[in-house]
Structures are given as structure tokens and as C-alpha cells.
């Protein structure tokens, strides 16, 4: 947790942006894994953490934008709880830790919300993504549980996105720490990447490193020698000499701040000439994004410039042809890069995606595209100082997609399918770092950059 003034200032800023009504911020509850007392590892709602700090289940917060009153709802522990959990701070003490004067039992949440409804005051709530909170909102407001996401307050969504997008110095420090853990995870993967080692073993080691430094991994680890599948969570294979191992993994600290990195390395410790050629193109894309990312620039424009670097490199390899600018405008390069350049990072690995991706990554100026590939760009809007975003270009040879496009004669003026067919056994490469937008450019997060050049990767794998 940060100091209480941090949370007080955040709630004050939220109250001023919303301007009227009752702001309801729900925490999360325990989620049973296979019976009530065996729960999944608890994860608090990120907006609740941002405004109220605490990571206990069964909490809710209210900010009255008119009277400026604030409430923290939750229940004090009883003797049965103390026997199993030990002594715990009282709700009054927990509220004071984040600068909230009024604490009430959770059962009184309905009383406070009901009074506001009887006065015909607006109840602002964020889109619920857990069904128990959908049911709770139905109980509090009368809105059918299935309809609660559609009745979420857009005023509140816009205010929360505006506040959480630019990271405070205390947040940046936490993200840097999370990226330091990411460094430990990815360098461990590189050292373990040897023929005959199981993907599951390495993935398990990475999950253990993340847990040893913080809460857990920030998302389910992707580690595979079948990197042509973008989110491949299958770890069932033994590594084979001559293949590429793609590792997309991150850590989540006790503060809930995250890291998210990807590296692709050669099983056996040496890139083949073909692997080196494609890898160098992806690395050039990655570095181009870092060069261009700065305040005032749209990330969509950065994405498109990176796509031109990819297309130009693939043209030099004989896989693409024709005018590079025209090829990218047509979307021909998306055969190899069917996803976007990056997304917001912070308390969530896809920061604030629960609030609606189009509200986080886009705005009235920059709107999402419907073009294949570009439509998957999660972050397109104009960059501001304090944004933390991912820079993650890739190049993938997806046999099913290649066959589909070839059969449909897609972009035949820009793609040499005979040459591309020879790469169907290649797999995929992705390189990803988390970057902070600074006053005059951008920088990597974390103290040390995970090895990324061909020489750096081969050096650490052959120590």
C-alpha cells in the first residue's frame, strides 16, 4: 500500500471528475476452486486497489460526490476467524489506513445505496466482470444481473481511465520492480532452454520465481516451441534442437502492479541463419517503436510504421513484394503480424481492460479499425507522459492462415506464397518490453533490459 494521502487524493480527483451522485467501487470476493473453503488465490479488483488500497475479500467503497462523504464497507473478524487467521485489524483501523473516516458492516451497503436511490440520486458503478458482483448490484439497485454491464456509468468509466492512465511516480517504481522480477524469469528461461527439457518444467520454474517475489504471475505463462499460436498455453512438449522457444511471461507484485515481457530464443543456444534473418527483422520493429514512442504521438501511427519495417524486411527476404506502403495500407503484412503493437500496463497486465478496451486504448480522436490485424491493436490513442505500454511486435508463420489466404488469393500482389510456404515449419517470434512514456521519449521499465540482441541471447544461453 501507498501512504493514505495518495488514496485520498485519488478519491478527491475521482469525485471532482464525476461531479455528482454516489460512486460505488466494489471489491472482489473469494472464488471457490472446487469447494467453498478451497479458493483460487485471491485477487482484488484493480480499481478498488487504486482508490481504497486494501486487498481483502468482501469489501466495498462509496464516495459521495455531493456531500464528499466516504465509506469503507466490510466486516470485522469474529473469534472463529481469529482461530484460523490470527488477530486482524478492525474495519475502523483499515479505513483509517487509507484516509476513510466512516467504516460500516457490509450489510449496511444496501442501506446507504437504497437511501440514495430513494432520493433519486445517480448510482455510478463500473462494469462488473464477476457474476457475484453482478448479483450484488441487482440486489442493491434492482437492475437485472445480466444487464448490469450495460448500465455501468460511462462518466465513472471515463474518469477512472483518465486517472489511471498516467502513472504516478509511486506506481512507476512498482512497475520497475515487477519488471526486475521479469528479468529474473526470462533469463532463467534462457538458461534452461536446452534440447530434451520439457516446456512444462521451465514454465513451472518461471511461475515459482514470480510467486517468490510477489503474488503470482501476471497472466498464465505462455511458453512454447509452437510460437505461431499467439497465446499458446500448452506446455506438453519436450524442446527440440533447432526450434525456437517463445516465452511470454510476467510477474505481479504484492501491490498488484505487473510486468509483461516476451523473448524468443533458439533451442540449443544458437540461431540458424534463417532464424537470425527473421529475428533481426522483429528486433528492428521493436526498436523502431521505442524510437517513435513519445508524448503527442498516436500509438496507432507507431504501429503502422513498425508494420512497414516488418514488410520491408520480409520483402528483402523474398516473402513480400510490391510497394511497402501500399502493402501495409492494404493489410497484407497482417498475414505475419495479426495482432497489435501493444497495450496499457499497470495494475492489470492489460490495464483497465475490464472497463472496455475501446475506452482505454481509444478516444474520440483515434477509433479502432476493422481491418484484419489492425483491429487487434488494443492501444491506438495519443500517448501522454506517464503511460506505461507494451512494445511487442512479432512475425508468425501460421500454416492454417497461410493456406486460407492462398486459397482466397488474398493480397497476391504483395505476398509470394511459394516462398512463404517454405516457412510453414518456422513457428513464430515475438519480442516484448514494457516502456514508460517520458517527457521527451520513452524508456524501458526495470533496472536491466532482458537480453534481446542475437549476441546477448546466445551469450547467456551458452554461459
SSE arrangement:
Layout: H1 4-18, E1 22-26, E2 32-35, E3 38-39, H2 46-52, E4 60-64, E5 70-73, H3 79-85, H4 91-97, E6 102-104, H5 109-118, E7 123-125, H6 131-141, H7 154-165, H8 169-192, H9 199-213, E8 216-217, E9 222-224, E10 244-249, E11 251-252, E12 261-266, H10 273-292, H11 299-316, H12 324-330, H13 357-361, E13 388-391, E14 394-396, H14 399-407, H15 417-421, E15 428-430, E16 433-438, E17 441-444, H16 454-461
Parallel strand pairs: 1-7, 5-6
Antiparallel strand pairs: 1-4, 2-3, 4-5, 8-11, 9-10, 10-12, 13-16, 14-15, 16-17
Helix pairs in contact: 1-7, 8-9, 10-11, 11-12
Task: Give a description of the structure.
The strands form six sheets. A five-stranded mixed sheet has the order 6-5-4-1-7. It is built from 16 helices and 17 strands. 44% of the residues are buried. The chain is α+β, with helices and mostly antiparallel strands and 463 residues long. The radius of gyration is 24 Å and the shape is globular.
